[in-house]
């Protein structure tokens, strides 16, 4: 099966074309990744087109689409989900959402209980915990790293990965692994069972975990005349 993978839940604008077959790990055919938290809307579609061209395929060749559903900041995250949804509708292909932290955990493949923490800004992290087999056991949540550090003994993790884990390594005190952002292979691996089974995809629900900064005004401001 030919799968398009996209993610915009982290500063990495990620797109890739992956070949997926039963009893085999996902095989990357082409990818484009740019680290720019302000360019998701500008770069994602060109990255998709360039990946398909390099892989020697067209949109019509795709069998499925996998998209990172976060957690992530509102503005970036919605770009990937909206793009994947539009492509799925236009091509009549299923779109499978996966937690971005699940994809990063697959990339890390540590074989140990693992904490995945990405940068949530505002001096917070998005995090989820995984067992040695890579199954999520807690999260995802958004929290201050100081508060998360207090929960680590109960979570039973000694390794961490993700950009948030790197930024706050001194606070978390965990051995750091190298998977900072999700890869196309990790995204597809996280959804492989559903994709191969041609299961009905879950709803494309973004994992924002907190309200956006911008809010709609609730009323007019009273003006006092001099």
TrEMBL record:
Q: Which GO terms describe its biological process?
A: tRNA threonylcarbamoyladenosine modification
Looking at the record, the residues that make up the Gcp-like domain are 36-138
Q: Where are the transmembrane segments?
A: none
**Single GO cellular component term:** cytosol
Q: Which Pfam families match?
A: TsaD
- Record protein name field: tRNA threonylcarbamoyl adenosine modification protein YeaZ
């Amino acid at each position: 099966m030919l799968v398009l993978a996209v993610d915009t839940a982290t500063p990495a604008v990620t797109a890739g074309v992956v070949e997926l077959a039963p009893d085999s790990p996902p095989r990357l055919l082409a990818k484009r990744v740019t680290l720019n938290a302000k360019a998701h809307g500008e770069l994602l579609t060109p990255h998709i087109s360039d990946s398909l061209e390099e892989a020697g395929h067209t949109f019509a060749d795709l069998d499925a689409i996998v998209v990172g559903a976060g957690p992530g900041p509102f503005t970036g995250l919605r770009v990937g989900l909206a793009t994947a949804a539009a492509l799925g509708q236009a091509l009549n292909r299923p779109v499978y959402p996966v937690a971005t932290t699940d994809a990063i955990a697959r990339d890390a493949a540590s074989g140990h209980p693992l904490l995945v923490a990405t940068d949530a800004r505002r001096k917070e992290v998005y995090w989820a915990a995984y067992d040695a087999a890579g199954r999520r056991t807690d999260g995802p949540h958004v929290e201050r790293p100081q508060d998360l550090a207090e929960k680590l003994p109960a979570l039973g993790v000694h390794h961490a990965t993700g950009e948030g884990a790197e930024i706050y390594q001194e606070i978390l005190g965990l051995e750091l692994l190298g998977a900072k952002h999700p890869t196309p292979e990790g995204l597809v691996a996280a959804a492989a069972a559903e994709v191969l089974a041609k299961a009905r995809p879950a709803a494309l629900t973004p994992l924002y975990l907190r309200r956006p900064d911008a809010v709609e005004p609730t009323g007019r401001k009273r003006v006092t005349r001099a």
